Amino acid sequence: MRKQRKAGLGCPATPGGLIEAEQIATAMHQAISEGIDPSTVVLRAKHQPGQVIPEKPLTVAEAIATFEKDYWQTRNRLPNTELTWQRYQAVLNRLPAKGALSLGLLQRTLLETTEPDSRTREMTCILFENLLDKCGVEGREKLSKLRGDYEAKERKLPTDTQLVQLIDVIRPTKWGWCLAAMAAFGCRPGEVPSLQLHDDGTADCLSIKQKKKLPGERTCFACPKEWIDRWALNEVEIPTGPLTEARWIKPEQFDSFENERWVAAWRGGRQAQIYKETIAEIFGADYRLDIYDLRHRWAVRSIETNVNQSLCAASMGHTLQEHERRYQRWMKKTDLRAAMAKLTT
């Protein structure tokens, strides 16, 4: 059901003004039936001689086409970027294709289709803000005020017992070595193909942080070291990438495009039946294990074992400040319990 709104026509209270008002009202009715913002009709009808006539407003369909073109100009077509665009499109399809793109239209759609202070409200608002920017329509600041105050739920991490159960089963499969290596060394998914293990429990690794930039070299360590032998991690088994062999030892060998495709293939590999069945058996039917959960769990494990956090941050490939900010809540719990243990001994 459409909501009623008042629109000032600015017509004089004369017989001629009444005729003018009727003409504008008829045009507005036609605009509404076509999904066009009726306020644009008033703007065009009331322009004065010598003034710039307002340009024909961009339709939603035209705006989405512009936004899509810009999206693919800066991204490779990969499974993850395709999925992201599909999600964007599902939101943008809520807008009337023939309607004129305007701040008011986006505000109404946002408020009518999303809940306050929700992740959906925040993400939809960001998408609409970008749509306005790409199409040169003003109003981003007003729209951003509707984002709300969303707070992400704390990531539910698997326990080490659950991880061991999972990887014991998955290790012999195609992506098993990668899963086990990431759990043991806490590296990023795209860094797994660069791991070169040493006998002392450390490994050389490439720090992949930014797209289209060569990675830097770093040293990381296994936590716990026993997992190296448990899952035979010295027997490197990295599935071939979609285009080439996915193995990068030096920064100059790194191919960001191929790396993205390789990680996307790994994520797709989780759809294998053995993954689904094992995860459902260990974690429950509704649990969704994210690859990054293994990295986060490594960080928490290192805190629980009281390893120097500066070394842990270096091993994970980020600064101590970032490490403390991201994992501070676990650090506080661990520090307090350790301090209490000392007081009671």
Count helical runs.
15
Class from helix and strand fractions? mainly alpha
Helix content: 40-55%
Total number of strands = 3
Q: Between the first and last Cα atoms, what is the distance in angstroms?
A: 70 Å
- SSE string, helix = H, strand = E? HHHHHHHHHEEEHHHHHH
Mean pLDDT: 83
Say what the CATH topology of the largest domain is. hpI Integrase, Chain A
Strand content: under 5%
Radius of gyration: 28 Å
Q: What strand order characterises the main sheet?
A: 1-2-3
Largest sheet: 3 strands, antiparallel
Count up the domains: 3
Q: Tell me the overall shape.
A: elongated
| CATH architecture heading of the largest domain | Orthogonal Bundle
Low-confidence stretches: 47-54
Characterization of the model:
The protein has three domains: 15-45; 60-144; 160-343, hpI Integrase, Chain A. It has helices at residues 15-33, 39-45, 60-73, 79-92, 103-113, 119-134, 140-144, 160-170, 176-185, 226-230, 256-269, 273-283, 292-304, 309-316, 320-343, and strands spanning 196-197, 202-207, 216-221. The model is unreliable at 47-54 (pLDDT under 50). A three-stranded antiparallel sheet has the order 1-2-3. A hairpin with an 8-residue loop joins strand 2 and strand 3 (216-221). The protein is 53% helix and 4% strand. It is mainly α. The protein has 15 helices and three strands. The chain is elongated.
Features:
345 residues, mainly alpha, hpI Integrase, Chain A, 3 domains, 3-stranded antiparallel sheet
Question: What would a concise description of this structure say?
Answer:
The protein is mainly alpha-helical.
